[in-house]
Amino acid sequence: MKSRTIQRTAWLWLWVFVQSFVSGVCLAQDRVQTARDVTQAFLQAEFEGDVLPKREKLITFSSKHLAEFEHDEPGPGPGPYVLYMASRPVFIVGAYEIVDVVTKVHRATAVVSYRKLARLDNIGTSAVTIKLDRQDRDLVTLNLVFEKNQWWVLDPLPPRVSKQVLIAYYEDKVKEDSPIWEQNLNDPAFDEEQKANVRATRDQATGTLRILKNLP
Fold first, then answer.
1. Pick from 136, 79, 145: which is nearest to 107 by CA?
2. Which of 31, 159, 165, 200 is spaced 20 to 30 A from 15 at the CA atom?
3. Which of 140, 145, 97, 90 is nearest to 117 (CA)?
4. pTM tops 0.85, yes or no
């Protein structure tokens, strides 16, 4: 009788252990999936030019980088928000893929592979430059933190935006601004310096569009 009681107790503890183990595994898997979902939402929003309301719900900053973010953060404007962040580069990409997500209590890392095409600097200025920077498998690590009952992308890196999004933006810009450029260039009230600035703005937009369309 005593041996049966001991045996039942042992089976009970084994059952509790197994259930606890399974629950722990399920919880860990759920945390990884949730972190992956947040990573995917962030990557897609950024790939599309990063709509501000989506971005604010997905990112957070350490005290070290918060001041830099507040200085760089643009106000709402037409087109992808990244075109108004003159102090940060923008990488042009053709595709991305989440390679791995690892969680550790309140921290996580996500490894992402990008098909990188080029780099834009001096965004939002007449001195914008575009440089070919081709890499078929550009591996980038994102850091995430679990706060306020959700995962956040911590201190996001310079944005990586779809080539097609930028092409669409510059096509609209050239189409919308071309009549204005033409009018200003033919306006006798504009002196040569003003006309030179108009030409520089026009050439910058049309040149950037041409390079974007020729990217592989």
1. 145
2. 31
3. 90
4. no
